[in-house]
Amino acid sequence: MTEWFYNHKTGEVEEGRQSLSADLDGPFDSQEEAARAPQIIAERSRKWAEEDSRDS
Predict the structure, then answer these.
(1) How many structural domains compose the chain?
(2) Per-residue 3-state assignment (H helix, E strand, C coil) for the chain
(3) Averaged pLDDT for residues 36-50
């Protein structure tokens, strides 16, 4: 199974690990999902922040 990564340094989607792990977000199951990485990460962060504020 191919893993896809979003390189947040270059803004490019990569098939497999082609760059330093520190520059990559993922793995994702598809190229399309990796391309949406910034939005996915923002959504997850927003949900976690909401959960943290409820737990406080």
Answers:
(1) 1
(2) CCCEEEECCCCEEEECCCCCHHHEEEEECCHHHHHCHHHHHHHHHHHHHHHHHHHC
(3) 94
